[in-house]
Amino acid sequence: MKKIYLIFLLCFTFFCCKTNSSVLDFPSKNNSQMVFTTPCKYQNKLIPDFSIDTTSFLNNEGFCAPTSIKISLCVKNLSKQQILNLEISIETDSETIVLSQKELLYIEPVKNDIMVRFESFISPEQMAHLVSKGIKSINIKKSKNETIAAFNGKKLNKKLLFLSKYL
Length: 167
Hints:
Elements: H1 2-19, E1 23-27, E2 33-37, E3 40-42, E4 49-59, E5 62-63, E6 67-74, H2 80-84, E7 87-91, E8 96-98, E9 103-110, E10 113-122, H3 124-133, E11 137-143, E12 146-152, H4 154-163
Antiparallel strand pairs: 1-2, 2-4, 3-4, 4-5, 4-6, 6-10, 7-8, 7-11, 9-10, 11-12
C-alpha cells in the first residue's frame, strides 16, 4: 500500500510540475469534484522542508466533505515523535484552525534528519472560511509559548483562490 501511495505521489508531482498547475480536479461520484491543490513549499533555518497540500470534495453547494490537509515536515534535530507532537495551525484574520488529529502516512530519512508526512482533516465550513477569508499564516509550535516557524500564507492563498471557481 505504501508503494502504491508513493508511486501516486510521484506521478502526481510529475504531472503538476509538467503542467505548472495550482489545482487539479477529477470527477467524483454524487456530482462532486475531487480537487487537489499542488504542494506549497516553505523553509527556514530550522525547517529545511515544509510543504502543505489539500484534497477537497466540492459540489454546486460548496465543500461537501471534510478537506484533507497533507503536510510533509522535516525539522532539524527533532525525532519523529517530537515532530508529530508539534502543533500546526492555519491562521486567518478572524480564526485559528489547529490541525489536531494527525494520521501518519510515512517516515523517510533525509540526510541527518527525518521527513514525516501526515494527514489531518478540517470541516467543510472551516475550508470555506479559509477560501473566503484567506490565510494569514501557517504556524508551527513546540508548545503554546514557543513558535518555531510562522510562514506567510500568500502561496497557499493563491492556490485556494482557484477553488473558488468550483463554488
